[in-house]
Amino acid sequence: MYKIAVAGTGYVGLVAGVCFAEVGHQVTCVDIDEKKVDVMKSGVSPIFEAGLEELMQKNYVAGRIDYTTDYKSAYKDADAIFIGVGTPEQPDGSANLSYIATVARQIAENIEKDCLVVVKSTVPVGTNDKVEQFINDFLVNDVKVEVASNPEFLAQGSAVHDTLHAERIIIGTESKWAEGILKQIYEPFGLPIVSVNRRSAEMIKYASNDFLALKISYMNDIANLCELVGADIQDVAKGMSFDQRIGSKFLNAGIGYGGSCFPKDTKALEYLAKQNGYELKTVKAAIEVNTEQKTKLFSKARKRLITFSGLKVAVLGLTFKPGTDDLREAASLENVPLLLEQGANIYAFDPVGAKNFARVYPEGTNGRGSITYVENIEEALDGANVCFVFTEWGEVKALTPETYKKLMWTPLVYDGRNIYDVGEMEEAGVEYYSIGRKPALREGKKESRNIGLQTVKS
Length: 458
Ligand code: UDX
Description:
Elements: E1 3-7, H1 11-22, E2 26-30, H2 34-41, H3 52-61, E3 65-68, H4 71-76, E4 80-83, H5 98-110, E5 115-119, H6 127-138, E6 145-149, H7 159-164, E7 169-172, H8 176-186, E8 193-196, H9 198-229, H10 233-241, H11 262-275, H12 281-293, H13 296-305, E9 312-316, H14 331-341, E10 345-349, H15 354-360, E11 364-366, E12 369-373, H16 377-381, E13 386-389, H17 394-397, H18 401-407, E14 412-415, H19 422-427, E15 431-433
Parallel strand pairs: 1-2, 1-4, 2-3, 4-5, 5-6, 7-8, 9-10, 9-13, 10-12, 13-14, 14-15
Antiparallel strand pairs: 11-12
Helix pairs in contact: 1-3, 5-6, 9-11, 9-12, 11-12
The chain binds uridine-5'-diphosphate-xylopyranose (UDX).
């Protein structure tokens, strides 16, 4: 059993802390936000994450985890301190390391015994060296401190599962002492451990995330070509997936990747390459494809409709993927302002993300358009002129083509997640557009009404 302190209680820090407690370590989670600490102490998770609250409560009652703003007492006698604070993207694409620096200094000024500092946050290659130097520069007591890299690979929505059943644990160390401690901390998880040097560990994180981002952008690129040549991206993906060298995961074309990692980590790696006089052409291309992909459906719809002014537009899904209330880099954030600018009356549905979205776009009139948040999908679809699907929530996937046909004034659906069957939508009489698949009804086909000239059904 190790005495562990975790700095930062976001997705990375909190989930790591809770899982360390779950396998028997003594954990103190540190956050500067007092309100958040009180919430966590009461057994409530500040983030929406399956299974997290149960483990928080269980381990809190068992006395294995606590939450505090008092970093001094949390750090002073910890065997290991994990840093899981944010490294947000700066306008030039580089990572902002100021939160890491603040924690590093607090550690240096307060540790009273030998301690391993473990950086879990995603940081540019070479940062761990700097953090170690920084801590040693500010060290107050005569103790040994070393920094190790231990990147996190959890995906939001399945964070607890991904941590307890990770496919691999990457540890990057520069001494047997550090390697030994990390191996022992992770030993109770019973998972494969890959032990490398610090810089390689830092690179593994970026290379892994950017590879997946590239994979998605590649499929989106191919999907766009499929549309032009009459192929179907889902059939293409299926055919590709049987090749085990390719694999079946992350082959879904759609409205582009979002979230807190892929967009940030692709830009950060491109920036790192540039800083080193190298052009990372593959990653650069992935970023470009993704940026264009996010508004592809909007552009298509705009051509089809002439204008959105006065139209009721149903928006299904606001978060960057299902299973999370996180909106970071979500396609909705690109499309909603475009729709509002065009005078659309948006009726938005999202089972968990609406509250966060309303902070950015409060309900009511917005510019030429307006936005209303609804609690059930039917309200969004009822009398709508056009519908956009941005997130593949279960309840959105469960909608039948007949529901669209019955509820919408004109059943015109733009699906950014390829969740419905093209043939079934067509049969039900829905004019359906998705990504990389043949449109059900050809643009401008006679039987579809010219909704550009209609107003909202009252
Ligand atoms: C990702 C990585 O999966 C994780 O290992 C890393 O630690 C953090 O970044 P996350 O951002 O939570 O996790 O979500 P993920 O499930 O990977 O999806 C990212 C984005 O890619 C989402 O917007 C998703 O909709 C999109 N995506 C994913 C696709 O468009 N197509 C796919 O085939 C898979």
